[in-house]
Amino acid sequence: MSDPVRQPSGPPPSASTSEFLLTFGLLLLMIVLLLAFDTGLARVDKAATTASALQEYKSGQGLAAAGHLDDAIDHFRNAASLDRDHSVYTVALSQAILAQGRPGVAEQLLRPVLDRDANDGAANLELARVLVNEGKPDEAKSYYHRAIYGLWQGADAERNRTTARYELIDLLAQSGDKQDLLSELLPLQDEAQSDSARRRIAHLFVVAGSPERGSDMYRAILRQNPRDAEAYVGLADATMAVGNFTLARDHLEAAQKIAPEDSAIKARIALTDTVIAIDPTQRGLGLDEQLRRSRSLVQRTIAAARRCLDVQSPEVAAALDSVTRSLVASAASIPRAQAIEENLSIAGTLWRMRGSRCATQPRPDEEPLRLVQERIGQ
Amino acid sequence: MPRRKLPRVPKRIVELVEDLRKKEDRLALALSLVIGALVGLVVVAFILLTGRFAAYAYSSGGTGWRRLVIPVVGSLVAGYLLYRFFPLARGSGIPQTRAAVFIHDGRISIRSVIGKFMTTAITLASGIPLGREGPSMYIGAGLASSIGRRLGLSKNQVKWLLPVGGAAALSAAFNTPIAAVLFTLEEIMGDLHAPVLGSVVLASATAWMVLHLVLGDSPLFQVSGYHLVSPAELLIYALLGVVGGFVAVGFVKLLLWLRARFLRFPASTLWLQPVAGGLTVGILGFFVPQVMGVGYDQIERVLNGDVILKTVALLAVLKIIATCMSYASGNAGGIFGPSLFIGAMVGASVGGVAHLVFPASTAGPGAYALVGMGAAFAGIIRAPLTSVIMIFEVTRDYSIIVPLMIANLIAYYVSHRLQRETVYESLALQDGLHLPGGAFRARSGLWVTVALREPPQPLTPEMKVDEATMRIGDSDLESWPVTDEEGLVGMVRVNDVVDAATGSQRPVTIATIMKRARAATRSGDAAFPHVHSDQPLGLALARMGDTGHNTLPVVSRANAREIIGIITLVDVLKAYGVDTTRMTPVRGTPVVE
């Protein structure tokens, strides 16, 4: 036989033209028949494997629900192997493997699914969860976004998107990424239907640094249900966040009237009282009281900083001593209003230094101090 | 072929067909497309039927006893069919395809094709851990052979059709169109520049398109992209190459040793011998089900990093035993798929240990499984180029090329050092067939450069024949180079110059003689016969035969008009060790002193 590239010579075929034509015709007929046969066979095969895969998937779901993860994984694996077109099987497999504590393997399974279809909502959501599990929240965020805006199969698409968004919101709230958190919350503001969902969003608005939006949502809830103690507590938190401690206390009292036995509300009231008691910027205070409170604030801040900063470090120790000395010295020599200003300024600087240098969050007993500092920082 | 009375065909169609038959290029094109499509469809049917049978045999919820019984029954049925009806359908099909190309003038009977289809389908569906790729190749080559003979093509033409059908089959069976071309040329033809290259590519692509048309676009294995974690990891990949090479040699030696034992049994037991393989698989499969079948799902699992070290190491060992027993005992099926399985398990074992010891600086075991597949394939099949391309095609993962190449070449080298003949050559040798192999080709690698000699002072086109005759003198060269200011323009026969010098139309120039010679041979002005120093001597011989020049210019590859030497027939024969002093002098064959 010859070749379009190089041509070894050979005699023409010995079959007659009619035989040649007949053979070619038969070959073409065979191709058509085989194509029909293969297509039919492929359909039968596809239907059978799809059914088997579904059966395996259901068995896997049952086993997973009963806590038999190893067996469930076998079934999910069979399903995924039989039917690659349905990524839900691979997602279920990776879910089970993740539950087994093997996020690396789960990730390896999900990557090819997303290579095939980067918009697969379920696979994106699952990979985001895997990445969170692996301690890669930044990478996980982009997969949450893809899950939110990706394609979902079935009727639960919107619910799944909302689930993905809430998981992302929780992740952002945990990581303190207020800007991104706020931008994720805004689309949910009008979507939330139940009171619990609205309370959750309102709370997250407060966490995201937008307490005004949180207050608005809580007030809307209270308009519809004035006996919602949780909403009053949330509203109190939002009000505290904007620095209106007195009003926050009023909301807490309203909550306590609805739920007088709630110890958490009592504790919140106690906290608010402490904050009001130490806040040097409260309205109606005389200059002496403001000065006293401002000094107290500086001392509390120094104490908080000492607890977390490396006080053994000569630099830090020297800086703190210097602040204390200047506080005592300046009190006698400058006007009170100026002293108050400087104290608040020193306290703010120290608090920010503490925030930037300390790995640990403020202790529970430092919560009043934190609230006052945030109020002053505004 | 017996002539039969056929219906009258319209004249126009007859003309078209005649035209097609006369022009070999067009015939090759048409046959490549037809064979590619037909073979592709047959292989797709083979894949689907085998898969369906296997699904029925091992339906969900079946008991463990099935794993013991079905391989035994399957091998018994296939063994009887092979013994009674299809004796040529035994084994993988690749040595048989090569035997058909190199020994049987391209003849593969349609009966053995049908037998291969049936017995392999039964064998694979019953869980025997052999591959479908080699048998598919035989089926494809056999169909091409039948078509060629049916069309009344010459033996030589039919022979050239076999790689076309084989490549189409492999392309569809493995979903690897490029690797199919390379394997066919590298392993079946033994020449990457074989004249059938174009047809093979066309048929492979056609079969691949058919596969995609019917079964859709999906790689054999779906894996996530792997990459090199640190440069030091290359050392571990190199080590994997070494391990892969040793495992490959162990596998091949065990396979050949077992087969040699089976070949000693009386011929009357041939029908029963495959049961030994089936029983081995059944027993192993009863305890470790992953040993059964070709195990592509298990490979994918390991490629995705789902590895338990003890399990993959155990599977590598058990698969070697099961495959060797199955193949050696005469079951129908190939070793393509099993070699990938073994490689993946070996790679995952090495990678698993490496990741355990150096977790921060190594990729997961899946990456090593991927590279291990290529290493084992390169070591067992001994087709390193095919191996690299095939791994890319079955995974569509191009991100780990360097480790893959390193491991492949090392495995190939280790395997080559420890086992001279390739597995297919050795299998053919066990059957008494002496097929040309890689080692043979390497030993016969004589190049033009060994017979190269300094060119004589060239003639010029405007030179008169008297002057040319004086320059030629009593040289033993039959042809003389002619150059102009830009370099070589061709060769002129010394006899033509001498004839012109003694003829009546003097004075004539060298250009005139060359023009007459070209007109006589109908060759164009642009091309003149030549060779390059890095080409094989066999090619120089063939070119001398084609052109009738016993002296050829050796020219630069960068500039074909730059002559760097000449090569003569006598020099070629001497390089081959032929004692030219004893040759009977014939016209045109000078005798050296």
Q: N-to-C terminal Cα separation of chain A, in Å?
A: 88 Å
Q: What is the CATH topology classification name of the largest domain in chain A? A: Serine Threonine Protein Phosphatase 5, Tetratricopeptide repeat
Question: How many domains comprise the coordinates of chain B?
Answer: 3
Strand content bin of chain B: under 5%
Proportion in helices of chain A:
over 70%
Query: Assembly state here?
Result: heterodimer
CATH fold naming of the largest domain in chain B? Clc chloride channel
Query: Which CATH first-tier class of the largest domain in chain A would you pick?
Result: Mainly Alpha
What is the chain-wise order of helices and strands of chain B?
HHHHHHHHHHHHHHHHHHHHEEHHHEEH
Q: What is the count of DSSP helices of chain A, taking H or I runs of 4+ residues? A: 17
CATH superfamily of the largest domain in chain B: Clc chloride channel
Q: Largest beta sheet of chain B: what is the strand line-up?
A: 1-2
Structural class of chain A: mainly alpha
Work out the largest interface and the residue count of each chain.
A-B, 58 and 69 residues
The 3D shape of chain A can be described as: elongated
The main pleated sheet of chain A reads as: none
Radius of gyration of chain B: 29 Å
Q: Name the CATH superfamily classification of the largest domain in chain A.
A: Tetratricopeptide repeat domain
Detailed description of the structure:
The complex is a heterodimer of chains A (378) and B (593). Chain A has three domains: 37-175, Tetratricopeptide repeat domain (Serine Threonine Protein Phosphatase 5, Tetratricopeptide repeat, Alpha Horseshoe); 193-278, Tetratricopeptide repeat domain (Serine Threonine Protein Phosphatase 5, Tetratricopeptide repeat, Alpha Horseshoe), CATH 1.25.40.10; 287-377, no CATH class. With 378 residues, chain A is mostly helical. The relative contact order of chain A is 0.04. Chain A contains 17 helices and no strands. The model of chain A is unreliable at 1-9 (pLDDT under 50). Chain A has helices spanning 17-65, 69-82, 87-99, 103-116, 121-133, 137-149, 157-175, 178-185, 195-207, 211-224, 229-241, 245-258, 263-278, 287-308, 314-333, 336-357, 367-377. Chain A is elongated. The termini of chain A are far apart. Chain B has three domains: 11-215, Clc chloride channel; 233-434, Clc chloride channel; 448-582, CBS-domain (Roll), CATH 3.10.580. Chain B has 593 residues and is mostly helical. In chain B, a hairpin with a 7-residue loop joins β3 (551-555) and β4 (563-568). Chain B is globular. The model of chain B is unreliable at 439-443 and 585-593 (pLDDT under 50). In chain B, 62% of the residues lie in helices and 4% in strands. The longest helix of chain B is centred in the N-terminal third of the chain and has 34 residues, at 24-57. Chain B has helices at residues 11-22, 24-57, 64-84, 94-102, 110-125, 133-150, 155-174, 177-189, 197-215, 233-263, 273-287, 296-303, 309-328, 336-357, 365-381, 384-395, 401-418, 423-430, 438-443, 465-472, 494-502, 510-521, 537-547, 569-575; strands at 479-484, 487-493, 551-555, 563-568. In chain B, strands 1-2 form a two-stranded antiparallel ribbon. Chain B has a two-stranded antiparallel ribbon with strand order 3-4.
